[in-house]
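About this split. The held-out portion is used to measure sequence recovery: a designer receives only the structure tokens and must propose an amino acid at every position. Recovery is the fraction of positions where the proposal matches the reference. Here is one held-out target exactly as it appears in the evaluation file.
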């Protein structure tokens, strides 16, 4: 089985004191690239988040969004920020006078303002409480993401299989067509050499030797053999599954290199048509391979 690198998942869990929600989004990337956005009190858990995710994902750009909501008050003491409370009070009084509004700021009103009352938290205890919740929510989100990637991977495998079969057919046509083109070229070249030898005082043996060298340079047997080997290797990777995206990408580059060399060496209407179709099919496959993990 292969997986795509795109998808989305969400997980959430709760205890008596905390509710945690995790959203995970993934897109294509050459390597494993992680970005975590979490509350400051959960920042120390980022290395663990990376470790948990790397168990399931080989590569891709993955964004993790963590929302943690406290359901009950923290145990222990509360720190009162008197300077901030005083600043709030002055600001509210100034606003009341400027707008000529009735009433006056109350203790309850000021206590509700951000930063006035802050619980004193034991960071280690808080992390100990939230770590299992975060791990559970992340596991749920990762499983949902992985299921989506598996479904997309199955569709990719089907399309890649179709493209591979078409490439195999085209490679077979090229193997059958190129000898005909090469034989025609060799016949024309020998005829021209014979003509030159009769018209000028040239070393006929040397001409025949140079002709053989030139024809050898136009031979694409090795390129077509390597192309077939790449196709076989591609099929093996596809059947084995797993994190094979990099290997498939490399093979498509090598296929393109071999078919380009064939097109440069052998000129002919049918061969040129086949070379263009092979290149087009390889490009389609390579686009799909970019989303294979």
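Reference sequence for scoring:
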């Amino acid at each position: 089985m292969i997986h795509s690198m795109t998808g989305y998942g969400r997980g959430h869990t709760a205890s008596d004191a905390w509710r945690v929600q995790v959203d995970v989004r993934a897109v294509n990337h050459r390597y494993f690239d992680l970005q975590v956005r979490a509350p400051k009190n959960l920042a120390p858990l980022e290395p663990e988040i990376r470790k948990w995710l790397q168990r399931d994902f080989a590569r891709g750009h993955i964004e993790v969004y963590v929302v943690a909501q406290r359901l009950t008050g923290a145990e222990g003491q509360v720190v009162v920020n008197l300077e901030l409370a005083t600043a709030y009070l002055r600001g509210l009084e100034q606003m009341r006078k400027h707008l000529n509004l009735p009433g006056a700021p109350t203790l309850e009103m000021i206590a509700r303002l951000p930063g006035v009352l802050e619980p004193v938290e034991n960071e280690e205890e808080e992390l100990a409480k939230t770590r299992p919740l975060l791990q559970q929510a992340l596991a749920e989100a990762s499983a949902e993401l992985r299921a989506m990637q598996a479904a997309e991977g199955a569709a990719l495998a089907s399309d890649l299989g179709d493209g591979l079969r078409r490439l195999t057919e085209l490679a077979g046509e090229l193997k059958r067509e190129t000898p005909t083109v090469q034989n025609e070229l060799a016949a024309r070249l020998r005829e021209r050499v014979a003509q030159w030898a009769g018209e000028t005082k040239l070393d006929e043996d040397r001409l025949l030797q140079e002709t053989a060298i030139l024809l050898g340079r136009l031979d694409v047997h090795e390129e077509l053999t390597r192309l077939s080997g790449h196709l076989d290797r591609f099929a093996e990777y596809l059947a084995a599954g797993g994190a094979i995206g990099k290997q498939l990408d490399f093979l498509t580059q090598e296929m393109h290199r071999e078919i380009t060399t064939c097109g440069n060496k052998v000129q002919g209407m049918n061969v040129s048509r086949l070379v263009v179709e092979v290149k087009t099919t390889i490009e389609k496959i390579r686009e799909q391979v970019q989303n294979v993990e």
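Annotator remark: The longest helix spans residues 123-199.
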